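Example with several molecule types.
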Amino acid sequence: MADKPHIVKSFEQELGQLRSMMAQMGGIVENQVALALAAIADRDEEAASSAYQQDLEVDQLERDVEGLAIRLLALRGPMASDLREIVAALKITGDLERIGDYAASIARKSLRIQTGEGQISLSGLRSMGRLVQDNLRRSIDAMTQRDANRATEVWHADRAVDEYYTALFRELVTYMLEDPRNIRSCTELLFIAKNLERIGDHATNIVERVYYAVTGENLPPFRPRGGIEISDQEWDAR
Amino acid sequence: MADKPHIVKSFEQELGQLRSMMAQMGGIVENQVALALAAIADRDEEAASSAYQQDLEVDQLERDVEGLAIRLLALRGPMASDLREIVAALKITGDLERIGDYAASIARKSLRIQTGEGQISLSGLRSMGRLVQDNLRRSIDAMTQRDANRATEVWHADRAVDEYYTALFRELVTYMLEDPRNIRSCTELLFIAKNLERIGDHATNIVERVYYAVTGENLPPFRPRGGIEISDQEWDAR
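Resulting structure tokens for the full complex:
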């Protein structure tokens, strides 16, 4: 019995270590997204290369979290919300790793964009970037604070990201139709916009898992979505 | 003691149930990818809609696997390779769910493609589709058979998918440059090619997790990649 408080404390310590690794991983991918957006806004090669390089750290943290989670599951027999939290951490690292990949991909593409004497406006992309960055920050806050209410807020906020994406998609296709010299850059920008939209989706996945870990309940299977499809009529009306 | 064999058997039964749910989930997403490719090849609306609808089933299976995995972890205290297999299942469902999403997305886009009197050839996309389908099938076989050798084979085979993607990307941009009327369909096709490439990446993730679950070792952090970047020189040489 004398050892019991020690064991309990040690499980808490290890769970605390897991949480701090998750917070660290979240901080890095937030930073990667910020760097990738700076790379677009300012054609900042250093930011782009820094976003790219941090991918290795994220991949290593994913493996480390997995190792610690397996250790906790094997040796500590965690139950109820602790168990849900460890399982959520295993899934969330996958989302964070993908967000890091998308940020690295945006950073690489950013250096290949030429806006051709201002023909192509990047203001829509920048606004979308800020919104995605904000949602990501809030989803990581919900994770570190295990806050189900904040999780629900972010879950609803992704709708606006989808709407931005649709508007941006239309705008970029219009630039391509107007002048074939825009095709190269707009193709890169289309993928950048898609990557941002995917980062928003992964931020949503994170809060879904946080919500489940904290409450033991799932959010509804369908999230309200912004209009991500363009109808044939709209295409034909160009 | 009299109960021990019963408990042991029952853990095996529950692990068997987890395996059969994973195999079922793998089978559905394989089928979704096949339907999505049929939707492209034959403009088959029924196939497209069927690919799309199976997403719900995949999402439900992901939740069911998670529920059963948590149950096994909480009540059975699995160790060593059993524990690794359950953790791998939790991660692999995420990959399978994404593959299903990409297949649904390809199916939706397929109906918006117009090849304009054969100006745009889909043969490259079809070849890439067959290769991705083949890699996915083999990665799911590696999973159901817990076969580390097969896992390593698939892991190497993804390089060819990356090469197809790069070639296809170039081809599609050329069609757009040749005739602005191709821009609409080629934009959809670019995203379809990207989705196929991502399905290939997720098949690679699956075999990485299978390899770890079976051997307790990680595959190297870097996979040999096909050329997925197009250099500025190549762009400029158009």
